[in-house]
UniProtKB/TrEMBL annotation:
<dbReference type="InterPro" id="IPR010111">
    <property type="entry name" value="Kynureninase"/>
</dbReference>
<keyword id="KW-0663">Pyridoxal phosphate</keyword>
<feature type="binding site">
    <location>
        <position position="105"/>
    </location>
    <ligand>
        <name>pyridoxal 5'-phosphate</name>
    </ligand>
</feature>
<feature type="binding site">
    <location>
        <position position="106"/>
    </location>
    <ligand>
        <name>pyridoxal 5'-phosphate</name>
    </ligand>
</feature>
<dbReference type="GO" id="GO:0030429">
    <property type="term" value="F:kynureninase activity"/>
</dbReference>
<dbReference type="InterPro" id="IPR015424">
    <property type="entry name" value="PyrdxlP-dep_Trfase"/>
</dbReference>
<keyword id="KW-0662">Pyridine nucleotide biosynthesis</keyword>
<feature type="binding site">
    <location>
        <position position="218"/>
    </location>
    <ligand>
        <name>pyridoxal 5'-phosphate</name>
    </ligand>
</feature>
<feature type="binding site">
    <location>
        <position position="221"/>
    </location>
    <ligand>
        <name>pyridoxal 5'-phosphate</name>
    </ligand>
</feature>
<dbReference type="InterPro" id="IPR000192">
    <property type="entry name" value="Aminotrans_V_dom"/>
</dbReference>
<dbReference type="InterPro" id="IPR015421">
    <property type="entry name" value="PyrdxlP-dep_Trfase_major"/>
</dbReference>
<comment type="pathway">
    <text>Amino-acid degradation; L-kynurenine degradation; L-alanine and anthranilate from L-kynurenine: step 1/1.</text>
</comment>
<dbReference type="GO" id="GO:0019441">
    <property type="term" value="P:L-tryptophan catabolic process to kynurenine"/>
</dbReference>
<comment type="function">
    <text>Catalyzes the cleavage of L-kynurenine (L-Kyn) and L-3-hydroxykynurenine (L-3OHKyn) into anthranilic acid (AA) and 3-hydroxyanthranilic acid (3-OHAA), respectively.</text>
</comment>
<dbReference type="GO" id="GO:0043420">
    <property type="term" value="P:anthranilate metabolic process"/>
</dbReference>
<dbReference type="Pfam" id="PF22580">
    <property type="entry name" value="KYNU_C"/>
</dbReference>
<dbReference type="GO" id="GO:0030170">
    <property type="term" value="F:pyridoxal phosphate binding"/>
</dbReference>
Amino acid sequence: MEFQNSLNFAKELDAQDPLRSFRDEFLFPQQNGKPFIYLCGNSLGLQPKSARAVLNKQLDNWQDLAVEGWFEGETPWMYYHKELKKLMAPIVGARAEEVCPMNTLTVNLHLLMVSFYRPDEKKYKIIMEAGAFPSDQYALESQVRFHGFDPAEAIIEIAPRAGEYTLRTEDITRAIADNKDELAMVLFGGINYFSGQWFDMEAITRAGHAAGAIVGFDLAHAAGNVPLQLHDWQVDFACWCTYKYQNSGPGGIGAIFVHEKHFGDQDMSRFAGWWGYQESIRFKMEKGFIAEPGADGWQVSCTQVIPMALYHASLQIFEKAGFMEPLRRKSLTLTAYLRYVIREVNLAIGDEQYQVITPENDDAHGAQLSVIAKGDAKAIFNKLVENNVLGDWREPNVIRFGPAPLYNSFEDIYHTGELLLQLSKAAAI
Ligand SMILES: *Cc1c(COP(=O)(O)O)cnc(C)c1O
């Protein structure tokens, strides 16, 4: 598409956008009596207007039914997670049995590693991306130590080549093949939080399996952002949070995926709790753990109805929007338009003031663009916020803009470019 850097053009794109009405389903934070241009869905998605009603329904159930709510009412709490599973599956390309909402992301990563990181003397190494989100680094280091290995030796981090910001797939797959004899697991982000790079998850999974390793993904920045095919790609396991692109609210419920090929493995080690016990006989309260088949078998504590209700509200919006295909179509155009307006700003000031480090190929990025700003990047970021454009800041010099197709408009993008230009001109004077 030929873009134009004009308000009329942005408005025209909005008029043609089949998802434009979804913006009205969200609440925008305000500053000085004006809503923010919110480009931070990569960090915390906005509140759906429907969240309060869906939450209130469960508060009413609690009020009216109290303990009977577990088995009575429209959505008995005992089975409430099944309502969510149906809607979660299409978002990540899984079967409903393969996903389950539970806990929070890093907790789930630990629980899944208990099952899937089974190192021995020979095969104990883990390959991950350098500069992974710190929680993942800490989780993996502590898991490796828990098994008696030294993280410095057991964890191999793949870094970009000198002068580059993102990873080349061939460097990842080569490292996997080179370490094949000692490799127990490949654990990658789906999309790197800092660079916005979407890794070739299918190629990584294939390479990991060829090396006899388990392959897992942290999909914090990928779930609800890019189309995923976890089942078809044969990914062994994955976990993600739902408060970023999936708008479930701060501290929202986490989620897991376990490929059905692992369901038959009765000997799989896990940290069990009563909610992972076979559902039909759970309340016999008997000795001896028997896992519920499927991802549900990884549940530990009883269903978190209240955070699940908030996630449910958002999942209903995803369903209404037609899940990932229409969202991704808009997202690609939004992000391409953002890249274009940033380029226009650079052209207008005759300098590479803003350098987008996120890859440009459609299959290597999601909604987010990570931008290195020359000069006093923090001051530019602060000015953006002062002027009602809310992206987010990552040390040392990166501004992340994560336009979300459910609630961002092309006009948002146009105004962001216009503001960047004004700020750069003001700084130059
Ligand atoms: C956001 C994010 C987390 C956050 O973990 P929580 O356990 O939800 O606090 C972890 N990993 C990655 C890659 C993230 O982007």
